[in-house]
Amino acid sequence: MTDTRDEAIIRLFHVHKRYGAKAALQDVTLEIAKNELLFVTGRSGAGKTTLLRLLYLGEAVSEGQILVDGMNLSRIPRARVPTLRRKFGIIFQDYKLIPTKTVYENVALVLEAAGRKPSVIPKKVRSVLRIVGMEDRMNAFPPSLSGGEQQRVAVARAAAGDPKIILADEPTGSLDEEAAGLIMSYLDTFHTRGATIIVATHDKELLKRADTRVVQLRDGRLLPPAPV
To answer: Name one GO cellular component term (predicted).
Structure first.
C-alpha cells in the first residue's frame, strides 16, 4: 500500500498577502503532506490566521500560487469554491457556535449545508459528539457550556463532514491546560483517522509537547527550520 503521508495535499509557492501597504505574508513557500499534523507558530500578527484563511479562499493571495488537493486556488471558478471549502473543517479560538441552536443543531448544520441525506445526519452527529465527549449535552445551548465544552463542540462540528483538512486557529488560546490537552487529544483522534491537521498557535506549552513538525512565521515570513 502506498504511504500517502509523503504526498503533499497543500502547496504554497512564493505566496504574498498585502492589505494596502501592509505585508501580512511575504514569499511563503511551504508543502504540507497528506495526513500531516503541522503546527504553525509565531507571535500575534505574524500571519498565522492569514495563512489559514488563504487556504480555503477566505482571502485571496496578492501574489503567488496555492494548490489544495490538486486545485489551483487562483484558477478555480467561483462555482467550485463550495467544493473547495467542503475539503476543510475549521476550528476558531472563539468557537463561533450559534447561541440560539443546540449543540446537536450546530453540528448538524455542517452536514445539511453539505447536502448529506437527512437519514444519515443523526447518526453522524451523535458519532462525532461521542468522540469529543459531548453526546450527553447535545440538547444544550452553547451559552450554558464552559469554554472547553464549546471548543469540543467546535471540534466535532469541524470533523462532522469528514474533511480532508482541519484548520485550527488558536484552538487552545482561551482554555486552561487540562481543557487544552483534551482538545489536542481529540484532534489527534481525527488525525489518526486520516485528516490533515494544521494548528496555528503561540501556546508554548502545546508546542513543547508537540512531536511533529513546527513551522514559524515572523513578520509574515516563514523562518528556516531550526538546525537539528
So the answer is: plasma membrane
Q: How far is CA 173 from CA 59, 82, 112, 199, 200, in A?
A: 23, 29, 29, 11, 10
Which distant-in-sequence residues (6+ apart) come within 8 Å of 124 by Cβ?
111, 116, 160
pLDDT-based confidence at residue 226 (cuts at 50, 70, 90): low
Closest CA to 180 of 190, 172, 170, 168: 172
Give the separation between CA 183 and CA 72, rounded to whole angstroms. 31
Distance CA 105, CA 98 (A): 9
DSSP 111-160: HHHTT--TTTHHHHHHHHHHHTT-GGGTTS-GGGS-HHHHHHHHHHHHHT
Rounded to an integer, the average pLDDT of 115-130 is 96
Tell me the Ramachandran region of residue 144: left when phi exceeds 0, alpha when psi lies from -120 to 50, beta otherwise: alpha
Which pLDDT value is given to residue 210? 83
